[in-house]
Design a protein that fits this description.
This protein is mainly alpha-helical. It contains 10 helices and 5 strands, in the order αααααβαβαβαβαβα. It has a 3-stranded parallel sheet with strand order 3-4-5, covered by helices on one side. It has a two-stranded parallel ribbon with strand order 1-2. Strand 3, helix 8 and strand 4 form a beta-alpha-beta unit. Helix 1 packs across helix 3, helix 2 crosses helix 3 and helix 5 packs across helix 10.
């Protein structure tokens, strides 16, 4: 989808950029792809808004395909309602734009367990490490929740998610369901590392502790 969005704006393919996308914000990824595609011409910043707009339109158009071809990761659909029933406020902190995040969550039927209005997104700040304070401020302003960062868990699947959590003063659970293996995630130094969320009772107990 990123490559299609860049191509639609530049009028030509982005090329074999090999940009690593895990744990980055949409604006950061777009800028890196543009830097490769426009290496000879320099620049690229001026195209970022148009590419992000094209990215959102492209993902919305592909929502049915995402629903059909994608899948929920083990335990997610069970953990979210359990935490909700326990009174836990759950949201998204993601490098995706708010619009793209909403499309992805809806595609897998998870929207009802997540308060997306108090989330933090790549569309808020291209620097992922700045996003925890954004979410906490929204929780305070929109839900009158004064949340201690030390009581928050950031759940992710890359060392960049850990860096974001540490920058925001929260705890971090890393799950090896992405491109990073258990050894790499353990070496990063998260509070907890799991292969997946399939052991629902253990995951819920951990996050409520």
């Amino acid at each position: 989808v990123f490559d299609d969005a860049v191509a639609s704006v530049l009028g030509r393919p982005a090329g074999d950029h090999r940009v690593v996308m895990g744990g980055k914000t949409d604006p950061q990824i777009v800028l890196e792809v543009l830097a490769f595609a426009l290496a000879d011409a320099g620049g690229g910043d001026e195209h970022v808004p148009a590419v992000l707009e094209a990215l959102e339109k492209g993902l919305q158009a592909a929502a049915e395909e995402l629903r059909r071809d994608g899948c929920q990761l083990p335990g997610v659909a069970e953990v979210l309602p359990r935490l909700d029933a326990a009174g836990t406020r759950q949201t998204l902190l993601t490098g995706n734009s708010a619009a793209n995040a909403a499309v992805k969550v809806a595609a897998f039927g998870l929207s009802s367990w997540l308060d997306l209005e108090i989330g933090a997104y790549g569309s808020d700040d291209p620097n992922r490490n700045a996003l925890v304070p954004v979410a906490l401020e929204r929780a305070r302003r929109l839900r009158a929740l004064d949340i201690d960062p030390a009581e928050v868990w950031v759940v992710g699947d890359t060392p960049r998610d850990l860096a974001c959590a540490r920058a925001g003063g929260t705890r971090c659970l890393l799950v090896a369901t992405g491109h990073c293996g258990l050894d790499e995630l353990r070496a990063a130094g998260a509070d907890e590392v799991l292969e997946d969320l399939a052991d629902v009772d253990a995951v819920v107990d951990l996050l409520l502790a």
